């Protein structure tokens, strides 16, 4: 037994030594740190067909056939690996492993090994565990898509370091905690999708500083407090989707400034008070869903008629809503009226 474990220890030492050698050699090449980081992460992943989807992720080393050593070292490029794309210098700039039936975590993903990564997509898989704070190392990241996994941590505050981010998709996970205020520093953010999680706390009013936002989706979640007046500053906003939260208070009249808004969904909250007549100015609005709140039914109907009237006035004759459209919109606004 003793000799057995000795052998084991020696062979592990041998493997570590081989790895060390391979690391020291690989580092000489441009993308080798990226190659090692991917191979290291691959070992931690499970796939329903034995990782066959990641079969292309291989170095062929350690390999007993010595002649392949040089070949391997000089020709490993991850650029043709499944889901991997490179920039013109052969450094990885995109990882897209969406819908790949992968199970695992990001715990052994070496974020700091991918300084050139701009797109990181792992949506529709079975990733679980934490969104690691080291994600803040992906300083060139523009596009982050983790939709439809089982991440169950907080959104790490280090997300604020991703200052080039334009798209942040965390929806359909089990994320908890509050929306980090650091998100408000991501001034290029265009698409923020946090819906279908367990986020609580308030909607940060500083989100009103993200003036490039076109899509803001924050529900279903467990968010409370008021709808910030500052959201009226998001002049490019097309979609404001915050249903099925615990939002209180009135609808801010500043939302009437969102002239490009096409969807305003606030159903299943605790909103009360008057519907601001300023919403009648939202001439681009197609979808307004306010049902299941503390608003009076007659108010909802009146608001929808005012909005439709303005749309009818502004539209070309051939673009005018039909009576069918009108009835559909009114029933969407107030589910229990009729
Ligand atoms: C995974 O690999 C093992 C051994 O190589 C094999 O016995 C098993 O059938 C494989 N499972 C699947 C799902 O391919
Ligand atoms: C590896 O390449 C070097 C020079 O490029 C050469 O001298 C050496 O013989 C090669 N080794 C093997 C095992 O092919
Ligand atoms: C990142 O990309 C730049 C420019 O293409 C390149 O010079 C650099 O070596 C890359 N970094 C790594 C770690 O590959
Ligand atoms: C990523 O992969 C998915 C699935 O193959 C595909 O639908 C999606 O368009 C890809 N994303 C990009 C940016 O190419
Ligand atoms: C980036 O990675 C390094 C180590 O690779 C780590 O020490 C550092 O904390 C990471 N940065 C962030 C923001 O987590
Ligand atoms: C938001 O912008 C205002 C001025 O436009 C500034 O005073 C405030 O500090 C900003 N807040 C954040 C969180 O960036
Ligand atoms: C943002 O909105 C608030 C309240 O609606 C307003 O007082 C403020 O001037 C706006 N800030 C900017 C930078 O537009
Ligand atoms: C609103 O949409 C129109 C048409 O799509 C566009 O021309 C205009 O620039 C948009 N306004 C803002 C503030 O984004
Ligand atoms: C936004 O709306 C408020 C209230 O309706 C109004 O007082 C304010 O002038 C508007 N701001 C802009 C920039 O249009």
Automatic annotation (TrEMBL):
Residues 32-87 form the Leucine-rich repeat-containing N-terminal plant-type domain. One of its GO terms (molecular function) is carbohydrate binding. Its main location: other. The keyword Repeat applies. GO terms for cellular component: membrane. Pfam families: LRR_1 (PF00560), LRRNT_2 (PF08263). Coiled coil: none annotated. Gene3D superfamilies: Ribonuclease Inhibitor. InterPro entries: Leu-rich_rpt (IPR001611), Leu-rich_rpt_typical-subtyp (IPR003591), LRR_dom_sf (IPR032675), LRR_N_plant-typ (IPR013210), PGIP (IPR051848). The chain crosses the membrane at residues 12-30. The keyword Glycoprotein applies. GO terms for biological process: defense response; response to other organism. Keywords: Glycoprotein, Lectin, Leucine-rich repeat, Membrane, Repeat, Signal, Transmembrane, Transmembrane helix. It is found in: Cell envelope; Membrane. Belongs to the polygalacturonase-inhibiting protein family. This is Concanavalin A-like lectin/glucanase, subgroup.
């Amino acid at each position: 037994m003793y000799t057995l474990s000795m052998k084991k220890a020696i062979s592990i030492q041998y493997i570590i030594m081989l790895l060390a050698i391979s690391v020291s050699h690989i580092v000489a090449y441009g993308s080798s740190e990226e190659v090692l980081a991917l191979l290291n992460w691959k070992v931690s992943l499970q796939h329903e067909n034995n990782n066959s989807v990641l079969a292309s992720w291989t170095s062929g080393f350690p390999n007993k056939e010595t002649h392949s050593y040089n070949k391997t070292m000089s020709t490993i490029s991850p650029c043709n690996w499944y889901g991997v794309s490179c920039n013109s210098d052969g450094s990885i700039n995109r990882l897209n492993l969406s819908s790949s039936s992968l199970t695992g975590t990001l715990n052994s993903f070496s974020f700091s090994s991918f300084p050139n990564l701009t797109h990181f997509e792992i949506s529709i898989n079975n990733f679980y565990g934490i969104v690691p704070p080291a994600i803040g190392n992906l300083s060139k990241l523009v596009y982050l898509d983790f939709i439809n996994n089982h991440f169950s941590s907080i959104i790490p505050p280090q997300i604020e370091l991703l200052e080039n981010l334009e798209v942040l998709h965390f929806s359909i996970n089990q994320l908890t905690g509050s929306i980090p205020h650091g998100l408000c520093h991501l001034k290029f953010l265009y698409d923020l999708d946090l819906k279908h999680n367990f986020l609580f706390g308030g909607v940060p009013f500083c989100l009103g500083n993200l003036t490039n936002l076109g899509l803001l989706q924050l529900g279903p979640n467990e968010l409370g407090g008021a709808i910030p007046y500052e959201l009226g500053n998001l002049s490019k906003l097309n979609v404001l989707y915050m249903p099925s939260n615990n939002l209180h208070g009135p609808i801010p009249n500043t939302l009437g400034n969102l002239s490009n808004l096409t969807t305003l969904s606030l159903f299943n909250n605790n909103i009360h008070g008057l519907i601001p007549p300023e919403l009648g100015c939202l001439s681009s609005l197609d979808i307004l869903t306010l049902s299941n709140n503390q608003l009076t039914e007659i108010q909802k109907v009146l608001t929808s008629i005012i909005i439709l009237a303005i749309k009818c006035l502004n539209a070309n004759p051939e673009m005018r809503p039909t009576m069918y459209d009108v009835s559909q919109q009114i029933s969407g606004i107030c589910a229990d009226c009729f």
